[in-house]
Design goal:
Elements (H helix, E strand, L loop, with lengths): L4 H11 L4 E7 L5 H6 L7 E5 L2 H5 L9 E4 L10 E5 H4 L13 E5 L7 H9 L4 E6 L16 E6 L1 H6 L5 E8 L9 E2 L2 E2 L1 H8 L2 H14 L4 E4 L3 H8 L6 E3 L6 H9 L5 E4 L14 E4 L6 H9 L10 E8 L31 E2 L3 H9 L2 H17 L10 E2 L5 E4 L5 E4 L10 E4 L3
Parallel strand pairs: 1-6, 1-7, 2-4, 2-5, 3-4, 5-6, 8-15, 11-13, 11-14, 12-13, 14-15
Antiparallel strand pairs: 8-16, 9-10, 17-18, 18-19, 19-20
Helix pairs in contact: 8-9
Length: about 425
């Protein structure tokens, strides 16, 4: 396999690392599985995945036999062991503490969970490398008690501008569901409450009309439950449901790739690690406040494909003013500072131009007055002292101050490990 330049760069950094735990942040579609399968091994490797379907996915990238630790399957001394966290945490006594030279955590934004930490505390590897496209967990739990530092970052905008991923046309369409009474738990909506709020005849009919009006080409719709998926699919001619109950997923994916099926409606199946590069439209009919989940859903459509110009992303916005993830959150951009009356102006923007569009909409008199309060709240939440400097908070979370000469200084937004950095811009 011919590695891309940035993949080789990441591997070289990993090969030079001293013992420790490190995080690699690489946007969906940039090939993190390819990278960790090519790490130079000095002993056995353990790869942790949190979902059944993800356990098997890396096998094709390794140059040696892989053992499996999942449900009824057991490894037998292979150089690489691919394990389900839910299974391995019950089988730790089957392994020596120094069994593995390297532990890889795939989708490492789950690494703060107790089951993961039990595994980490048991083994004593030379290296623990976490790979994720979304290191900022939706429940706001930081990963600094798991990883020492972020050693490599390539974000979504970088991937698009370098032509490794396709750009995203971002649409916002209002539908009639109301989320005001939906309870929240662990950083997202309670699933049963959410389903009751959005899985109704009126809203499902609206989803089908959004598909008819705005969808372009091969389409993937995310629903809140199996019932929700089935109800939406029943209103779209030729749509097929994929859920945990679906036995023939591989044949359905094959038919979708061959364009025999135009629309798939799924419930929490195509959220992580599934390769469907043909997808041309994604409709988020399952609102979420979890930025990690949202990025994973959208990530299914970011890969390039012959004849595919961009991904059309359709965010369905309810009638209530509840904060839900939308296209700007893919880049860590904050919509709180955009007056509600201007949010509609974001619809139709390309993702690579989204930050500039948001900054333009934020530059209005009502925001000038509120900036001081926003900066204070931002600083207080991180225990920072702004020293009475009149900072301006940007859409990406950074603080910037501009001198009369035009030069600017900035403080980068706090990252997933609780760290920041000073920035300096020179006016030319």
């Amino acid at each position: 396999m011919q590695l891309r330049d940035y993949q080789t760069e990441c591997l070289e950094k990993i090969d030079r690392l001293p013992s420790g735990a490190y995080l690699v942040s690489m946007a969906t579609g940039l090939g993190k599985t390819v990278v960790f399968s090519h790490i130079k091994r000095r002993g056995r490797m353990l790869v942790l995945s949190h979902r059944e379907e993800l356990v098997y996915q890396p096998i094709k990238y390794f140059d040696c036999p892989c053992g499996i630790e999942k449900a009824g399957e057991h490894s037998h001394g292979e150089q690489v062991v691919l394990a389900s966290v839910q299974t391995l945490v019950k089988r730790l006594e089957n392994f020596a503490r120094d069994e593995f030279d390297i532990i890889i955590t795939d989708e490492a934004h789950h690494a703060a969970a107790p089951s993961y930490k039990k595994i980490y505390s048991y083994f004593t590897p030379r290296l623990h490398i976490g790979f994720t496209a979304t290191p900022n967990r939706g429940d706001k739990v930081r990963l600094d008690d798991v990883y020492d530092q972020i050693i490599f970052e390539r974000n979504l905008k970088w991937g698009i501008l370098k032509n490794y991923l396709c750009d995203v046309k971002c649409l916002r369409v209002k539908v009639s569901y109301d989320l005001k009474r939906v309870r929240r738990r662990m950083g997202d909506f309670v699933t049963d409450d959410l389903d009751r709020a959005i899985n109704n005849q009126t809203s499902n009919f609206e989803v089908s009309k959004v598909y008819e009006r705005y969808a372009v080409g091969q389409t993937l719709i995310f629903a809140s439950s199996v019932s929700h998926a089935e109800n939406i699919a029943a209103l779209i001619d030729g749509a097929v449901v994929v859920s945990q109950k679906t036995a023939n997923r591989s044949s359905i994916i094959k038919a979708f790739t061959e364009r025999k099926i135009k629309c798939l409606v799924n419930c929490m199946i195509f959220t992580e690690g599934t390769d469907l590069p043909l997808i041309e439209t994604i409709i988020i009919a399952r609102p979420t406040q979890n930025a990690s989940l949202y990025a994973q859903m959208v990530g299914r459509g970011l890969r390039q494909y012959p004849g595919k110009r961009y991904l059309t992303l359709i965010d369905l916005v309810g009638v209530s003013e509840m904060d839900v993830c939308a296209a700007p959150s893919l880049l860590g951009l904050d919509l709180d500072d955009v007056p509600k009356k201007y949010e509609g102006d974001l619809s139709g923007a390309m993702l690579t131009k989204m930050e500039e569009r948001i900054e333009s909409l934020r530059d209005c008199p009502e925001n000038w007055v509120l900036n001081v309060q926003r900066v204070k709240l931002f600083a207080d939440s991180f225990g920072a002292n702004t020293h009475d400097v009149n900072w301006s908070k940007k859409a990406n979370g950074s603080l910037v101050y501009q001198f009369s000469c035009g030069d600017r200084i900035g403080i980068k937004a706090v990252n997933e490990l609780g760290k920041t950095a000073l920035m300096r811009y020179v006016f030319n």
